[in-house]
Design goal:
5-stranded parallel beta sheet, 27% strand, Dna Ligase, domain 1, globular, binds glycine, Rossmann fold, 6-stranded antiparallel beta sheet, 424 residues, alpha+beta, binds adenosine monophosphate
């Protein structure tokens, strides 16, 4: 098989790493990739949402499967583009079509889907500029804190959680009438606040059957003790200790099965990953959000724990015989710690030389925001690299990650020293 992976982050390096282990793999291309993927694959410098450029790469390199990392190409319809093109339609795309991608592309759609299929989630109502007054009235019926969500994609920034009702009303107005998040906030979902501890569960489905991948917990805030601004994710742990069999059985029965069945009932042929963001509310799982891709940095702990051949699983997705594929998980714990540029998630500098990676032992280095400049690896983003390790306990795995991080340096490097602090 000749694979093309779309994307450039730690998630895509982890896909490249895992797929490279497959006996079925011939060549692997990453568009646009990073300095890490360049070591084990061929990078092609195109934008993954430029579908004509993607087509050219696919045809020029005899690509036989496309794996989509981020949500943007899915929401913009890369899978539909392939199916509508005679030269591309027989090439499987791992990732849903536009209709399935709405689970992430529209919060209003995903809430309606959950309501229709009786999937536990926070109570909600959606509002537009025309129904702003009704929105104010709905806020009055809720207890603080108030949760406001822009309907569309807003680069992870479209969710506001506010303690004060006047502030909530003012923000609702900002979103609806002043387009605080552009077109993404033309519709706003207001929902009940769920109190609990968050985790994520990942599902790979061929539209009929599914495999439940390892659970993971990520650490989104920049500061230790979960303080400060939200980031894409500063680290992750898998498995999640409190997600025991009893809890995961509830997740499967109440959420995963009705989600996969619901997609089928609604005529949505979904082939790819479903990332289910959950809140554990006193032992019961509630869906906070669906994403139609894997998480980053969750992928950097989830994929290394899969013992089975990922390419075989992808073939199962493409041929709709995923139920026939074996699926084994490594029992050990995996942890990852993200090294970020100083200043991230606000303004930061790029182009800093990264040194010491060659001294890393017994950890996997997944590059995220890096690139090669005159044969040197330099920083090229806010999240720079994720250091993944295995251990029999969370502590043991983290110790390895942190010991190796001591050997790596770049100007203004920052990272959280307390990943997993709430789980030990
Ligand atoms: P989302 O983009 O929907 O994942 O929301 C971003 C973050 O806001 C989540 O990871 C949660 O920490 C928080 N959040 C979202 N919805 C709720 C809710 N209903 N109750 C409590 N926290 C929430
Ligand atoms: N780490 C969260 C995400 O990928 O959305």
């Amino acid at each position: 098989m000749n694979i093309l992976i779309l994307g450039s982050g730690g998630r895509e390096h982890a896909f490249t790493y895992k797929l490279s282990q497959s006996k079925k793999l011939d060549t692997i291309f990453v568009a646009p990739g990073n300095a890490g993927t360049a070591e084990i694959a061929t990078n092609v410098a195109i934008n993954p949402t430029d579908f004509d450029a993607v087509k050219k790469v696919v045809l020029d390199n005899n690509i036989t499967m496309v794996v989509v990392g981020p949500e943007a190409p899915l929401v913009e319809g890369v899978h539909d583009f392939f199916l509508a093109d005679d030269a591309l339609k027989s090439i499987p795309v791992i990732g849903p079509k536009k209709d399935g991608a709405l689970l992430e592309g529209s919060k209003d759609f995903s809430k309606q889907f959950m309501e229709k299929h009786n999937i536990p989630t926070a109570k909600y109502k959606s509002f537009t500029q025309k129904t702003l007054t009704e929105g104010y009235a709905f806020l009055e019926t809720l207890q603080p804190p108030f949760v406001l969500k822009a309907d569309g994609l807003a680069a992870g920034k479209g969710v506001l959680i506010l303690d004060n009702i006047d502030e909530a009303k003012a923000e609702l107005k900002e979103m609806l009438t002043n387009q605080k998040f552009g077109a993404a906030s033309a519709t706003v979902v207001i929902e009940e606040f769920l109190k609990g501890i968050e985790l994520s569960v990942f599902v790979l489905t061929d539209g009929k059957s599914y495999k439940v991948l390892p659970s993971a917990k990520d650490y989104k805030r920049i500061g230790e003790g979960d303080t400060g601004l939200n980031t894409g994710g500063m680290g992750a742990i898998s498995p999640v200790p409190f997600a025991d069999n009893a809890f995961l059985t509830k997740v499967e029965e109440r959420i995963i099965k009705p989600t996969v069945d619901g997609l089928q009932k609604d005529g949505i042929d979904y082939r790819g990953f479903i990332f289910i963001g959950l809140m554990n509310v006193a032992g019961d799982p509630f869906v906070i959000e669906y994403n139609v891709r894997m998480g980053d940095p969750e992928t950097e702990v989830v994929l290394p724990r899969i013992a089975s051949d990922l390419l075989e699983l992808f073939e199962g997705v493409a041929n709709q015989n995923l139920n026939e594929k074996s699926f084994e998980v490594i029992a050990q714990t995996a942890t990852t710690v993200m090294l970020v540029s100083g200043g991230y998630p606000e303004a930061y500098e790029k182009g800093k030389q990264i040194s010491g990676v060659e001294f890393v032992e017994d950890s996997i280095v997944f590059h995220a925001g890096t690139k090669l400049e005159n044969d040197t690896v330099v920083t090229n983003g806010g999240r720079v690299m994720a250091i993944t390790s295995f251990g029999d306990t969370i502590q043991e795995a983290l110790q390895k990650s942190y010991k190796n991080i001591d050997k790596i340096s770049f100007e203004k490097m920052n990272f959280r020293k307390d990943i997993g602090f709430d789980l030990q």
